[in-house]
Amino acid sequence: MGNIGFLFPLVVVVAVVRNCVATLSAESPNTTTDRLALLGLKPHVTHDPQNLLATNWTSVTSVCNWIGVTCGSDHQKVIALDLTNMSLRGTIPPHLGNLSFLCHLNIRFNHFHGSLPMELANLSSLKYINFGHNNFQGKIPSWFDSFTQLQSLFLCENNFFGVIPCSLGSLSNLEVLILYNNDLKGQIPIAIENLSNLKWLYLDNNQFSGQLPAALFKCRELEILSLSNNALEGIVSQEVRNLTRLSELYLNTNNLRSMLSVGLP
Ligand SMILES: *[C@@H]1O[C@H](CO)[C@@H](O)[C@H](O)[C@H]1NC(C)=O
Ligand SMILES: *[C@@H]1O[C@H](CO)[C@@H](O)[C@H](O)[C@H]1NC(C)=O
Ligand SMILES: *[C@@H]1O[C@H](CO)[C@@H](O)[C@H](O)[C@H]1NC(C)=O
Ligand SMILES: *[C@@H]1O[C@H](CO)[C@@H](O)[C@H](O)[C@H]1NC(C)=O
Ligand SMILES: *[C@@H]1O[C@H](CO)[C@@H](O)[C@H](O)[C@H]1NC(C)=O
Ligand SMILES: *[C@@H]1O[C@H](CO)[C@@H](O)[C@H](O)[C@H]1NC(C)=O
Ligand SMILES: *[C@@H]1O[C@H](CO)[C@@H](O)[C@H](O)[C@H]1NC(C)=O
């Protein structure tokens, strides 16, 4: 299980950065705003054991040469920020909301904490967000519905609590929603029925309760559904079979009873 949520995302990373490059429009090159936005992150990083930001994010070179930063090929705006596994500790400043062309934001496997600033809602070009494997706290913000182009959202292995906001149901391009290992609770929102492109849903290791909503069986593209280790109740009906693309289903450690006479493929 742990391995599944871990290997596939690497494939997604590569695919999405390519996707970013293809969908940009040209604009007169000016890196000033982006440079200030990234420099805004530096004082919020309180621990950088390899001194990566301190020695590399300097005015000697353009932001486009900074470690973890990718600019569009036809202009000098930052389209991707990838600080994966750099042992960074700190918080996310509002300044990152100024990276107006950002399409790909990946800071997984660090020690970022605190809550997410609302200014990030301005990043309406984001297709890929990975805050997984950090120490973020707070609720999943309802303003995540600003990310109208979002395809992948990873918030796994953090301390997010509260319910899944219904507003996430409006992310009609969402294909990957990974929320395992948090302190999330409440019912799986009915609004999930509107995620008609959803392929992978990982909600395992939280405190979700209530019945499995029939709405879930309207997500016809679902390939992987992982709900293990929650407090879900009721009967798993034959409607699971409506999910014809489903290849992996994890339901263990809940209060569910299965009415399926034969196992799923
Ligand atoms: C770049 O943008 C900044 C802030 O918007 C502005 O002050 C500066 O004059 C611009 N530089 C160029 C070369 O256009
Ligand atoms: C920053 O890191 C990038 C990528 O590793 C490298 O190409 C560049 O030369 C570094 N810049 C400085 C000033 O160290
Ligand atoms: C993180 O970096 C360490 C040290 O370079 C490496 O051993 C580990 O496999 C990396 N983890 C991930 C998830 O990339
Ligand atoms: C960037 O964002 C910060 C905080 O949200 C704001 O105060 C600042 O004026 C912005 N800077 C630019 C250059 O847009
Ligand atoms: C975010 O966008 C709103 C409206 O699009 C704008 O009024 C606001 O100034 C933006 N904030 C930042 C920090 O860029
Ligand atoms: C799903 O989307 C439709 C159309 O936008 C909307 O009318 C409906 O209320 C949504 N369902 C839920 C449960 O939010
Ligand atoms: C599942 O499929 C059956 C038969 O096609 C249909 O009657 C039912 O409404 C479907 N359930 C959902 C939740 O879409």
TrEMBL record:
Which SMART domains does UniProt cross-reference here? LRR_TYP
Q: Where in the cell is it found?
A: Cell membrane
Give the main location: membrane
Q: What are the record keywords, sorted?
A: Cell membrane, Leucine-rich repeat, Membrane, Repeat, Signal, Transmembrane, Transmembrane helix
- Name all Leucine-rich repeat-containing N-terminal plant-type domain ranges: 33-71
Range of residues in the leader sequence: 1-22
Q: Output the SUPFAM superfamilies linked to this UniProt entry.
A: L domain-like (SSF52058)
Q: Which Pfam families match?
A: LRR_1, LRR_8, LRRNT_2
**Cellular component, GO annotation:** plasma membrane
Question: Is Transit peptide a UniProt keyword of this protein?
Answer: no
Keyword presence, Signal: yes
In terms of InterPro entries, this protein maps to: Leu-rich_rpt (IPR001611), Leu-rich_rpt_typical-subtyp (IPR003591), LRR_dom_sf (IPR032675), LRR_N_plant-typ (IPR013210)
What's the protein name? Probable LRR receptor-like serine/threonine-protein kinase At3g47570
User: Its gene?
Assistant: LOC108662687
